[in-house]
Amino acid sequence: MIKKKSIDKTAARVDFIQSATGVILAFFIMAHLLFEASILISKEAMYQVTIMFEGYYFFGEKYPGIISFLAAAIGVIFILHTVTALRRFPASYREYKIIKKHTQRMQHEDSSLWMIQVITGFAMFFVGFVHIYIMMTQPSNIGPYASSSRVVDEFMGPLYLVLLVSVVLHAFVGLYRVTIKWGFFEGKNTKTSRKRFKLLMKSAIAFYLLIGLASLGKYTYIGLTHDFSDGIKYKSTQESH
Ligand code: HEM
Questions:
Q1: Which residues span the domain enclosing 139?
Q2: Residue 52 lies inside a defined structural domain of this protein
Q3: Ligand 1 centre from 195 Cα, in Å?
Q4: Any idea which of 30-34, 122-126, 201-205, 236-240 has the lowest mean pLDDT?
Q5: Is 188 inside a domain boundary?
Q6: Which of 22, 119, 181, 187 gets the most CB atoms within 10 Å of its CB?
C-alpha cells in the first residue's frame, strides 16, 4: 500500500517535470525565433541582438561565454524534457502501428496531435542536440555573416529546416495539450475553450513557421551572395571598437 502511494507520487512528479520543462522550452523558442528574425530587419539589427546576448550593453565588453552558459542551461532542460517524455513513446513498432490505426480509424484530432508530438519529438532528439552543441562550443561564431556561413557552407540549412518545422509544431501542439491537460483558462464552456485554443495554436504555428522560413531564407541568401574572403566576422557601422 505504502509502496504504491510513493510510485504514484513519482509518476505525478515526472509528469509535472515534463510539462514544466516543455513550457519553459516553448517560451524559449518563441523568443529565440523572434530574436533570430532580426536578420529580416537588417544585418546590423541581428548583430546588435547578438552582442546584447554577449552582455555588451551590460558590461561594455563582449563575453560569448554567456551564450555557452545559456546553451548549456537550455541543453539541461532539453535533456530533462526528453528523458521525462521518452516513457510516452510507443515501446515497439507494433505498439506504434496499433496507435496509428486507432488514430486513423477514430479520426480523433487530439490523438493525431499526440502522434505529431511523437514524430517531431523523435526528430528533435537528433537535430536539436547538434544545434545546441554547436551553440555551446562556438558561441563567438554567431552573427549575420557567421550564421549565414554556417547555414550555407557548413550545410546546416537542411538541418535547421527539419528543426524549425519540428520545434514549431512540437512547441505549440505541446502548449495546447498542456493547457487542456492541466485545465488552465478553461472557462465555463470547455468545448468553446478547446476550439479557441486550437485556433490560437494553429495561428501561432503559421506565424512562427512563416518568420522562421523567412529568416532561414535570408541567412541562405546572405550565405550564397556574400563574399567571405574577408572572413565571417561582421564589422558593425556603429561600434566604437
Ligand atoms: C541557448 C541556446 C541556443 C542558441 C544560442 C541558439 C542560437 C541560434 C542562432 C544564432 C541561430 C541562427 C543560425 C546559426 O547561427 O547557426 C539559430 C537557429 C535556429 N535555432 Fe537555435 N539556438 C539555441 C537553442 C535552440 C533550441 C533549443 C532549438 C530548438 C530545439 C533551436 C532551434 C533553432 C532553429 C529551428 C533555427 C533555424 C531558425 C530559422 O529557420 O529561422 N535553437 N539558433
A1: 10-92+101-228
A2: yes
A3: 31
A4: 236-240
A5: yes
A6: 22
Which domain CATH number covers 197?
Answer: 1.20.1300.10
Question: Each residue of 78-87: b (16+ CB within 10 Å) or e?
Answer: bebbbebbee
* Ligand 1 surroundings by CB, under 6 angstroms: 29, 32, 36, 67, 70-71, 74, 78, 124, 128, 131-132, 135, 142, 147, 150, 156, 160, 163-164, 167, 212, 215-216
Sorting pLDDT into bands at 50, 70 and 90, what band is 241? very low
Is residue 190 a part of any domain in this protein?
A: yes
In this prediction the pTM is: 0.91
Could you tell me if residue 164 is inside a domain? Answer: yes
Rounded CA separation 45/135 (Å): 20
Alpha-carbon distance of 157 to 130, in angstroms, equals: 13
Distance (Å, whole) CA 223 – CA 63: 25
- Structural domains in the chain (count): 1
